[in-house]
Design goal:
single chain; 451 residues; MgtE N-terminal fold; CBS-domain
């Protein structure tokens, strides 16, 4: 196994590397990157334009070049590969696993993709053609065709020999899948069991029949949950007839989980599209504007609502001082509650575990938090203003807002999820805007009752 040197991207190194690129100093580039991990080289290349990055990659070994291109994020890679011709791409993609090759071909223009496909080795080409039939968001689109399989009627000796042959095209494997003569999945056998078993034993005598598998049409989110639930490093993929057609490994699932987390994070931040910092100004604006408009509309409604209570504010001007406190606390409580529910909704058994009991727990937590906050605010206000009625109004309002905001923050994601919407949209500007209006309503209704 190759050992890589520790690499730190400093400004000095970046400037020196830029100088080498400007001078087309191949020797410096080759020597400085010779023992650097491909992942570190990928991070370095983000600092330079496509032409400079291509010049660097052309100097590196073909397998390193393939690894770096595979590791680029999808949008960057799509733009980067525009400067490559089909004859340059085919040798690179030939060094990749079938699932990575299919992902890249999906990102290329149709004409380029077909030309690259024609230049691939026959076996890889057939595997990729098979994978391109599937949508990228299902198990068939995630799986790789490379795997280790054994017939149930083989002896352990035959199995070992076949593993040696098949392992030449499989970079990583964690288990051996057992199939019958029609390639139907029967189970799995660990490498340890193969090694310690008698050489003349049949695979049928040592394999485990209970194997977790997924169908080609299984959604990627469900595959994630299955692998997390059963703590799997890889999962076999079968077609509608039960034949073994591929496998999904943990690194593929990590990619899906990262994409899901990014999507939820952006939705929670009020960003409606998948955008990066270096996307166009218009795309960034378009992604952020809708929820900002909702926030502005909520602010205008809040201002109009406060205008309805102008007489009360004129009577006790100190009431206006506490509007930010009420709104901010309600927004924070709502976001806390919705974030916890969104996290819990990732578990398929969430609702089945007893929704009523969970809501009751949320209510008790809200009541306890509301009591402590209201008590602290009452004491602080009374010490500062010396006005019992004002302190009571603010404290009662705060107590009510914390309870209502907590319930709204809990129920909103559940309702959105029930109607098929991503509940993550509840954990950002949506909840904040609702709770701003809710806080003002509760506050001024309390003013009317107690003033």
């Amino acid at each position: 196994m190759k050992t890589f040197v520790e690499f730190e991207l400093t400004k000095e190194f970046r400037d020196r590397f830029q100088e080498a690129l400007d001078q087309r100093d191949s020797q410096f580039i080759r020597q400085s990157l010779e023992d650097v991990n491909p992942a570190d080289i990928t991070a370095l290349l983000y600092e330079f334009n496509s032409e400079e990055s291509k010049f660097t990659l052309d100097i590196l070994a073909p397998d390193i070049r393939a690894q770096i291109i595979k590791d680029l994020d999808s949008e960057t890679r799509k733009n980067f590969l525009k400067i490559y011709g089909p004859s340059e791409l085919s040798p690179i993609i030939n060094l990749m696993d079938s699932d990575d090759a299919a992902d890249i071909l999906n990102e290329l223009p149709v004409k380029t993709s077909e030309e690259v496909l024609a230049g691939l080795d026959a076996e890889l080409r057939n595997q990729v053609i098979d994978l391109l039939r599937y949508d990228e968001n299902v198990a068939g689109g995630l799986m790789a065709k490379e795997l280790i399989k054994a017939r149930n009627n083989w002896t352990v000796v035959q199995c070992v020999e076949e593993i040696r042959k098949q392992a030449e095209t499989v970079t990583k494997f964690y288990t051996v899948f057992v199939v019958d003569e029609q390639d139907k999945l029967l189970g799995k056998v660990s490498l340890q069991d193969i090694v310690i078993s008698d050489a003349h034993k049949l695979v049928a005598d040592i394999y485990e029949p209970d194997v977790v598998s997924v169908e080609t049409y299984t959604p990627d989110t469900e595959v994630v949950e299955i692998m997390k639930k059963y703590d799997l490093e890889s999962v076999p993929v079968v077609n509608v007839t039960g034949q073994l057609v591929g496998r999904i490994t943990i690194d593929d699932i990590l990619d899906v989980m990262t994409e899901q987390a990014d999507e939820d994070r952006q939705l929670m931040s009020g960003i409606t599209e998948d955008v990066e910092e270096d996307d166009t100004i218009w795309k960034n604006t378009r992604a952020r504007l809708p929820w900002l408009l909702i926030g502005v509309l909520g602010g205008m409604l809040s201002a109009r609502f406060m205008g309805l209570f102008e007489a009360e504010l004129a009577q006790v001007t100190a009431l206006a001082f506490f509007v930010p406190l009420i709104q901010a606390t309600g927004g924070n409580v709502g976001i806390q509650s919705s974030s916890l529910i969104v996290q819990s909704l990732a578990s398929p058994g969430f609702v089945l575990e007893g929704l009523g009991q969970r809501l009751l727990k949320v209510l008790f937590v809200a009541l306890l938090n509301a009591f402590f906050l209201a008590t602290i605010v009452f004491g602080a206000n009374y010490m500062v203003f010396g006005n019992y009625n004002l302190s009571l109004i603010v404290s009662v309002s705060l107590f009510s807002v914390v309870v209502f905001a907590s319930l709204v923050g809990t129920l909103t994601p559940l309702i959105l999820d029930r109607f098929g919407f991503n509940p993550a949209v509840a954990s950002g500007p949506f909840i904040t805007t609702i709770n701003d209006l809710l806080g003002l309503t509760v506050y001024f209704l309390t003013v009317n009752v107690l003033l």
